[in-house]
Amino acid sequence: MELDLGFFSRRDFLKNLAVFGTANVALWAGGCESCNQQIQNRPTRKNIQELWDNNHSDPVITTYKNAVTAMKALPSSDPRSWQGQMEIHLNKCIHRNWLWLPWHRVYLVYFERICRKLTGDDSFALPYWNWNTHPAVPDPFWDTSSPLFHSPRGVTQTDQADPSIVGTSVLQNILNETSFNLFASGPPPTSDLHAGPDATSGLEATPHNGIHGFVGGDMASFSSPLDPVFYTHHCMCDCMWAHWNIDLNNANTNDPAWANFAINDFVDESGNPVSVNAAVTVLFPILTYQYEPCSLAQEQAPKAPKLTGKELEAFLKAGAPSKLEFGPRFEVRQSISAEVGKPSTTALTVDPGALMSALQGGPHTRLVLTVGDAQMPPKRDFFVRVFLNKPDATGDTPIEDPHFAGSFAFFFDESAMKGHEAAGETSAAPLTGFLVDVTSTLQKLNQAGSLSSNQAQVTLVPVPQVRREAAGEGLTFGRLELAVARF
Ligand code: C2O
Predict the structure, then answer these.
(1) Given the CA of residue 107, which atom of ligand 1 is nearest to it?
(2) Domains 45-318 and 325-486 share a fold
């Protein structure tokens, strides 16, 4: 693969050198055969359950264990220590907007480099937990004598995450998104990067948040990196992003506020602070690591042509405009609550003609449900399934029902918000919100002839996470909107 230096201004390039290591620098600065080799042979991130099934002492698992032990042995004041890595997340993590992807990508890259340095295993690549093919916390995390064990968790070794969070049809819908906003969450609405009110969507809202809640214990809080399963969960999220972007040829946003966002909360393997712009992270999976395919069980073969070399590089660098424009929009503004065991149904007055013509609108027109002005639930042992025109939906309604539209979950930590105040955020629980792409569900309903009414009924069904009772828990929100979204 040949790379061209034009992507970065010289200044950005120098600023970001550290990320890629000397081989890549030499390559960019003129190219060299052995550097090329090094990129070709970059470490491969693999499926941890498969590694374990083949060999309980696979070198990747052994190095991961040794790295955790070595990090725990460092003084907690060292940002490379187990505690130090966790505290970066606790105090600085970015969620509920589209910067969560590059922020956590940088996190993993430096975590992986720290693992290599502390263990001397230079070929180490962080493994991922494919929660689609293996919805239970992988086996290596359950050996009580292993540094990968962590207690307490809210689940046992055999409990499985719900198919409405990690099932193939739900994840396939997310991978089918062509809008970055709907795949990755939307932009932060203000310069306060942590306070997006209605922004969470797709990969973040459903499997990301849902798995944090499913595992429970520390994983349900911003201290989640205390549980070694955290890094393998994020590695899977990162793999899905890479798959969506690189294999399925979907463009990231080219919004300069995203591309130029400087991620500077991390340290390298020597403990030196680093700063990486979000735009640079789009190249990580083609320069510094690669993935063994993390595709879904029975995923439909992607139709995208395979880009390589310069073509791929140009595509990744260019991104695409990613504004979502809403209208017409049909909404109610009133306080609505849904509780575990008490689903809520809200009728929206709609123009069925507008919805039906949007269904013919091609790949850049979607129908999007916004659950907005939501109070972050004080207890989050549940997730929410969304049904359309199915007012009798309950927790027992199967997600194979044609009225099922998607689901979303929560990831938040009140007790961490003090740390985030330094980053300009208030410590009060934020208003939040979720975007659910309901296009394919409305398509099904339209084909069944049940989309002609001027009422659309939206039913939200809070469902307890496995092994959690969640009695009385629920969501209260102030705005519900069904809208045509164009991008
Ligand atoms: Cu910042 Cu999934 O955590």
Answers:
(1) 1
(2) no
Q: Rounded to two decimals, what is the model's pTM?
A: 0.94
Give the atom of ligand 1 at the shortest distance from the alpha carbon of 95. Answer: 1
Which atom of ligand 1 lies at the shortest distance from residue 230's CA? 2
Q: Are 129 and 142 in contact (CB under 8 A)?
A: no
What is the tens place of the pLDDT at every residue in 465-480? 999 999 999 999 999 9
C-alpha 345 – ligand 1 centre gap (Å): 31
Class of domain 325-486: mainly beta
Q: How far is residue 310 from each of residues 19, 247, 317, 320, measured CA to CA in Å?
A: 20, 15, 10, 17
Cα dihedral 149, 154, 157, 161 sign: negative
| Domain boundaries of the chain, sorted by first residue | 1-41, 45-318, 325-486
User: Three-state DSSP class for 286?
Assistant: helix
| Cα-to-centroid distance, 477 and ligand 1 (Å) | 23
Task: Write the pLDDT tens digit of every residue in 34-92.
Answer: 667 788 889 999 999 999 999 999 999 999 999 999 999 999 999 999 999 999 999 99
- Find the 382 Cα to ligand 1 centroid distance in Å: 17
Q: How far is the CA of 305 from the centre of ligand 1 (A)?
A: 32
Residues with CB under 6 A from ligand 1: 89, 93, 95, 104, 208, 212, 224, 234
Residue 9 pLDDT greater than 60, yes or no:
no
Q: What is the dihedral of CA 391, 396, 399, 402, to 10 degrees?
A: -40
* Rounded Cα gap, residues 46 and 126, in angstroms: 7
Mean pLDDT across 7-17: 47
CATH of domain 45-318: 1.10.1280.10
Per residue in 240-267, pLDDT (tens digit) is 999 999 999 999 999 999 999 999 999 9
The Å distance, Cα 375 to ligand 1 centre, comes to 20
